Amino acid sequence: MAVTADWLYDAIAKRQGVLVKLANISWLLHAEGVAFCPAHDTLLVSDLHLEKASYLARSGNPLTPLDTYATLQRLTKLIALFKPAKVICVGDSFHDVGAFTRLSSGDRAELSRMVEMPTEWVWILGNHDPDLPADIPGKKRKQTIVGNIRIVHEPEQDAAYQVVGHFHPKGKVSVNRHRLRGKCYVLTENLLIMPSFGQYTGGLDVSDAAITRHAPKAGRQCFLMYEGAIYTLNERTRKT
């Protein structure tokens, strides 16, 4: 494992990550939108929504069709940084069932190289990509387990502990009288909701009922990502 304890503590000191526990397992929630579990040498990322721009272009949306390239480049750099043995994509990796066929030859080659970087790669199926073509490299699963934590795209009632995606949580926080808005992690005693990683992904405010239903405000922590730093929403945050 490339990531050492000193590296983790340095990242936390620089606000590049925050260390939390879920099911008594430590996770580093990184300010670039991935969660790393040192004990299992596993990196989680959620909601890439590859080829969202090409999908929306069909209805005349003028988004620049470079979202897949940008998303793959960002994720490749993080995998190179953490060097995990295992990467798990927590669903909605592709924006629709035809997204893989629309990948450019360059993006398809980059995707294949990225998937080969760790020893194991797992695609969790989501509501946008419930069935992935056989020629996409990596394992395809409805769910998987890290320790005693279920990794699944949407929350399931029978899971004691789980990590999910799907909601694309966002929030805001005041820092030195400036209002920062960004994507968020949402953590309770038994649930971690991942932020969306994709370049063009929207989201729900953390106060939305769809999120508070699973993560009530009274029993959760929200961590906002902004320009390479991470901030806690439920306290008044000041730069140091």
Automatic annotation (TrEMBL):
Domain of life of the native organism: Bacteria
UniProt keyword list: Endonuclease, Hydrolase, Ligase, Nuclease
Calcineurin-like phosphoesterase domain residues: 43-142
GO molecular function, one term: ligase activity
Entry EC number(s): 3.1.-.-
Top EC group: hydrolase
PANTHER family: BLR1149 PROTEIN
Protein name: Ligase-associated DNA damage response endonuclease PdeM
